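Reviewers of the previous submission asked for a worked example of the structure-prediction workflow described in the proposal, so we include one complete record here. The input consisted solely of the amino acid sequence. No template or homolog information was supplied to the procedure at any stage.
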Amino acid sequence: MNTRPRTTRSLLQIVLAAAFAAAAAAALAEDLTQSLQAEGLLVWYARGSAKWAQLAAEAFPDANKFALDTVGITANRTVSVHLYATTDGYEGAINHSMPDTLGVAIPSSNTIVIDCSRADLRGPNGFLLTLRHEMIHIAIGRVEARTGHRVPLWFNEGVATCYAHRLREDDPTELVLASYLDSLFPLKDLEHSFPAARMLRELAYQQAESTVQFLLERFGKDAVRQIVRRMEDGASFDGALSDLTGGMDFEAAWKKHIAGRYHFLSFLNLVSLFTVAALLAILAYVIYRFRRHRIRREWAEEERMLYGPEEEDDDSADESAEEDDEGDRW
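From that input alone, the workflow returned the following structure tokens.
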């Protein structure tokens, strides 16, 4: 009897068992067994992440007030914040791979999940900014629950991103380029989801932030709260936006706004270092050819001065003589 297949299966079973054991150990290491409770807040965290839990407790009152000031309402019950020490634990908890996000809000359960391994104390990836951002999502989720009307994702993310301040120091690259190429997403395409591809997703976030910035600049700092109040009075989101803007074509006005806002120099700022290097190489080649041509002319002039002009053939001499005769006649 041939026992090799059984041996192969046995080895495979051992390997799989070891892999499952490693995965179970990793999952166990990310179990959020520790908790910290404060007013309106319950923090769950893994061992070794106590500093992040304490920071969450200290930052939560500010984030809660920030959401209230922004949206006009906030969570009406305890918010549960889950802090993961590794990206694997974070992505396992939300059952999704999100390499470009630090946190996720789940308004239906008043839950916020944060990847502490990629968070900073301050700056664009700061823990406080992330908590503020997600608390705005919790507040907008409560608006949807209270009114029965859905808020489009571009507005939801736009409010959270715009108010939580991403600390961008230059023009939004993807937005500027898409504006010049007339390839912006229609807002209806960003109502329920954003693209998965990284650059397209970044463009979607930049568009969302830009629309809310335009809304605030054109209709006042209280524009978001006015939309929420109209929704609480029974209007849908589209109806509330139309009431606020006087029935204008909001999307067309926003596109015209960004087309005028980002001038030609902004477009030039998009030129990459590789493009600059290529242009410099072309310029260097042109200069080289010009100098080479000039040097050849100089050499020819030196040869003429040293050895005299080159002897012309008979045909050239006859043509030259005819030209002289014509010149004399004139």
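The chain has three domains: 31-148, 149-270, 272-310. We consider this example representative of the routine output the project will generate in years two and three.
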